[in-house]
Design brief:
179 residues; Aminopeptidase; three-stranded antiparallel β-sheet; binds coenzyme A
Length: 179
């Protein structure tokens, strides 16, 4: 399978609406309707000074979407979605490898990249780990859902120096004794 990443263009509003409103997105708050996506695209919310969005093209087909966020901050974050029919084939893993290199290359001042997901999103957590992201945070019952269940949220990040050296530096979780 050939994977490419292609930045969205101003004419992509309908394609974004097809993608984002076309299926349920688990681990995301609510489903966006087509009109909301069109309006957000018209407002430039998918591509502006702080945000860049890319199609993940698998053999030329729009299989996923990568949204890079908070690009003006010290630590960018991202949202990644792979369409249901394309999951489990390594696309998510390749997308995070690509976006990590892209962000560290495009933004020379940043030293880290962060991502957050729900505790039970095992696929996304595997994607983080496979790309050298270390678990840095765990917020209990901080992710409410419409059915009333409150899940834990977990945060991962990669340091530029770890990315360069190919290592994973874990936080010092045993630091309570130092205080
Ligand atoms: C999370 C997501 C991006 C992963 O993309 P993907 O292309 O399916 O991921 P990959 O094929 O690269 O698989 C990554 C790993 O997850 C593992 N995995 C997949 N589903 C899993 C599950 N239910 N439980 C445990 N591991 C799982 C795979 O086995 C793989 O690890 P391996 O290569 O060691 O076997 C995709 O499932 C998705 O878009 N989900 C819905 C939206 C979402 O959750 N986005 C993330 C929001 S933070």
């Amino acid at each position: 399978m050939h994977i490419e990443f292609s930045r969205i263009s101003p004419g992509d509003a309908e394609s974004l609406a097809d993608f984002l409103a076309g299926e349920e997105w688990p681990y995301h708050a609510g489903t966006q309707d087509r009109e909301t996506v069109r309006r957000r695209a018209a407002e430039g919310l998918y591509d502006d000074a702080e945000t860049r969005t890319f199609w993940v093209l698998a053999d030329g087909e729009r299989a996923g979407l990568v949204k890079l966020q908070d690009l003006a901050d010290d630590t960018p974050m991202f949202d990644l979605r792979v369409r249901h029919s394309w999951r489990g084939r390594g696309i998510g893993t390749q997308a995070v490898a690509w976006l990590t290199g892209y962000l560290f290359g495009e933004l020379p001042a940043i030293t880290r990249i962060e991502g957050t997901t729900r505790q039970d999103n095992h696929a996304m957590r595997a994607v983080f780990r496979k790309n050298g992201y270390a678990k840095e945070s765990h917020y209990r019952e901080s992710w409410p859902t419409p059915d009333g269940t409150c899940y834990d949220a977990v945060g991962y990040a990669i340091l530029r120096r770890d990315w360069i050296s190919g290592t994973v530096t874990l936080p010092n979780w045993a630091d309570e004794s130092l205080t």
